[in-house]
Design a protein that fits this description.
It is built from 29 helices and 17 strands. With about 725 residues, it is α/β, with parallel strands linked by helices. Strands 13-14-12-15-16-11-17 form a 7-stranded parallel sheet, sandwiched between helices. α2 packs across α3 and α17 crosses α18.
């Protein structure tokens, strides 16, 4: 056996059952050795719950208490099930079944269907959207692609909550759910959808659970056979089980109590899919003799991150809050979380990109950094900021902004309108670029007012609204720009964001970040209306938004940044307020202000475009002395309409050089330097690296890469030191 075999990639299998327990903390060991009767493990974020339950199963198997083939461990994702199987193999318990609820149910259904019903199991429809579309058409209801996705989601929710079509409208009203269409219409489509499935002898994903429940209820002989096979059950992420999954679990168990559940009510963030923490919270009521173990030692995050996470939950209300776990960090002290206020969204994105670039320069891997936001439509501005900063990135759980179908359609429509020009009647009443963009995107689903509720329709609107805002910002930055100019800008951005990356900063929604962790996490856009989201109305919905932020915070191991902006665009009215969830946590915001860990108190920083006074004082125009608030003006250090002392010839030489560099590097010109940065250079005419570095938009990275050339051009020389002809 080579030395490499003993590496972390090939860990040695513990020699004895007792060796399986080595390295567990006292609470993990208590969970691992509690093999009799019902067991409930309440495991906080980062406390090693997967380690505890896999060692529990392995210890039982290695000690001869559990037979591997008699154990069924269920979780919610194939990734989690695969990780569990891998760990069990490493611990010498490779024969244990670890599956998702659907995978375990489908396996049983395929095996018992011939005996219970006869013939082969009906074909499984993996994508039900087409069938839903046909059902809607049969009902004479027209749904666009996004409404189809939303109505399909409503049918899935109804089925996992065991709601039949006739009861759907009442169930929606009772749950305060925002239906994407009239509930009576959705009930009609739902009924027709079920009829079409029956006519064509097909089943969907939810039917797998429903049919397995039906077989086990109706055929006691089959239920007994399953119970003889599986004697012991382990359920991970128990706070996320739906009523239908709980019903199936009860049928698997029968009258036995050989069940171990693991969960954390404070991480319930999927109630819109039918998940409910009630089963976890009621576990001790249903099983009065249950062994309850609490895991609160956090091995993931520093004391500073854990302190903030605990502070978030300390203000929560409701049943889940009553069972919250107070985490205790087991890691050395780290930096305090950084709260940063920016004047506008572009400044926030640029500021986060700058911090990320600094972290990477300090040695943090790009793959160990994440930017988390509430909705996917927020990604575009961070994609752009990271591309401008030369930082590679990847998106998780969503297409890149310019790859989204609605964005592709919108850009094509804008391009068509630009080519048609005055011949397009759509633009007859559009007097400027902004109104032209609104007119074109209005045909694609954009409206001045956001649609109510969440779902695909809202997601589509958010994407189109992001394009409208981008058009407004472009028109403001470039007076006189045409629709063709904007389309060119969009194409350049699209090209820059398609650059291939091997490893990059993760951009993800807070929901998509569940179950993951990074060394550094930036949670952005933390304003009222976004966190909590504007359509969270009830107390329960508000508390789920708080838990969503908690999940985001607890993804960070060491570095944590939380930020918000006071307005949407540069020069906009600073009317936004930081998220209520930060009250009492960020300094100066409430009764908890001043509390801190032993490492010291965190501070609220001000981003470069913030309207509020910073320690460095306001940024003043170097011509008239007026306070500057817009990012472009602050970059130039003067008002837009103040006279410029820019060297026009130098500016043109810089633009020519930039075009050559962009072609050589295969990137849009603005990624090298933006127009505003070139104007600032042509006005300042720096003579050394220090003078060039202080110009906004240059920075250390671009100084190293382009500084020699730029200084040569400013000195009247050719890049590379060759004298310029005619100088």
């Amino acid at each position: 056996m080579t030395a490499a075999t003993h590496s972390t990639f090939f860990p040695q299998v513990p020699e004895t059952a007792d060796a399986v327990l080595d390295g567990l903390d006292p609470e993990q060991r208590e969970a691992a050795t509690a093999l009799n009767g019902p067991v409930c493990v309440l495991a906080g974020a980062g406390t090693g719950k997967t380690r505890a339950i896999t060692h529990r199963i392995a210890y039982g198997v290695r000690a001869g208490i559990l037979q591997p083939s008699s154990v069924l461990a269920v979780t919610f994702t194939n990734r989690a099930a695969g990780e569990m199987r891998g760990r069990l193999r490493q611990l010498g318990a490779g024969g244990v079944q670890a599956r998702t609820f659907h995978s375990a149910a489908l396996r049983q259904l395929q095996y018992f269907w011939p005996k219970a019903v006869g013939g082969q199991l009906p074909r499984l429809v993996e994508r039900k959207v087409q069938l839903v579309a046909e059902a809607a058409a049969r009902c004479r209801l027209r749904l666009d692609r996004n409404e189809l996705r939303d109505v399909t989601g409503e049918i899935e929710w109804a089925k996992v909550t065991q709601t039949v079509p006739g009861d759907y409208p009442a169930a929606v009203a009772k749950s305060h759910r925002e239906a994407p269409r009239d509930p009576a219409e959705i009930a009609q489509i739902y009924r027709m959808y079920e009829q079409l499935k029956q006519d064509r002898a097909v089943i969907d994903f939810e039917d797998v659970l429903l049919l397995t429940v039906g077989v086990l209820q109706d055929r006691h002989d089959i239920a007994d056979q399953v119970r003889r096979q599986y004697q012991h059950f382990v359920v991970d992420e128990y706070q996320d089980v739906s009523p239908l999954q709980q019903r199936l679990l009860d049928l698997w168990l029968g009258d036995r109590d050989t069940l171990c559940v693991v969960g954390d009510a404070s991480q319930t963030i999927y109630s819109f899919t039918g998940a409910t923490p009630d089963h976890l919270l009621n576990f001790r009521t249903r099983h009065p003799n249950a062994t309850v173990v609490k895991l609160v030692r956090d091995y993931r995050s520093t004391p500073q991150v854990v302190h903030l996470a605990n502070g978030l939950l300390s203000q929560a209300t409701g049943r889940a809050a009553e069972h919250r776990l107070e985490l205790v960090s087991q890691r050395p002290a780290g930096p305090e979380p950084v709260y940063t206020e920016y004047g506008d969204e572009p400044a926030e994105a640029e500021g986060v990109a700058r911090r990320i670039r600094d972290l990477i320069a300090s040695g943090v891997s790009a793959g160990e950094i994440a930017v988390l936001y509430r909705i996917n439509a927020q990604s575009e501005i961070y994609e752009q900021a990271l591309a401008d900063a030369g930082v590679p990135y990847l998106l998780r759980g969503a297409e890149r902004f310019f790859e989204r179908p609605e964005v592709r359609e919108a850009v094509v429509a804008l391009g068509g309108a630009a080519r048609a020009g005055g011949n397009d009647s759509l633009l007859d009443d559009a007097v400027d670029l902004t109104s032209q963009v609104r007119a074109v995107l209005g045909t694609k689903g954009w409206t001045a007012t956001a649609p109510a509720g969440s779902g695909a329709v809202r997601d589509r609107w958010e994407s189109l609204a992001a394009l409208v805002r981008l058009g407004e910002d472009y028109a403001r930055a470039k007076p006189g720009a045409t629709l063709s100019d904007l389309v060119t800008e969009l194409r350049e951005r699209e090209a820059a964001q398609h650059a291939p990356t091997v490893e990059g900063v993760t951009l993800a929604s807070l929901h998509a970040a569940k179950g993951l962790e990074w060394d550094a996490v930036f949670v952005v856009g933390l304003t009222e209306g976004m966190m909590p989201i504007t359509y969270a109305k009830t107390d329960e919905q508000i508390e789920e938004e708080r838990r969503l932020l908690y999940v985001g915070v607890t993804r960070a191991r060491v570095h944590l940044g939380l930020s918000w902006s006071l307005s949407r665009s540069p020069g906009g009215r600073a009317s936004r307020r930081p998220s209520r969830f930060l009250n009492g946590l960020r300094p100066g915001s409430g009764s908890r202000a001043g509390r801190s860990t032993a490492a010291g108190a965190a501070g609220v920083e001000r981003g470069p475009a913030a309207r509020k006074r910073t320690r460095r004082g306001p940024v003043l125009c170097r011509v008239c002395g007026k306070t500057l608030t817009e990012a472009g003006e602050m970059k130039l250090m003067r008002c837009e309409d103040c006279p410029s002392d820019m060297d026009e010839a130098l500016y043109e030489r810089l633009r020519d050089w930039r075009s050559h560099q962009a072609r050589h590097l295969g990137m849009p010109p603005y990624v090298v330097f933006t127009d505003k940065t070139l104007m600032a250079i042509a006005e300042a005419v720096p003579s050394n690296g220090h003078e060039l570095a202080v110009i906004s938009g240059v920075g250390a990275r671009k100084l190293d890469r382009f500084g020699t050339d730029v200084l040569a051009i400013c000195a009247g020389e050719e890049p590379g030191g060759v004298e310029e002809e005619g100088s």
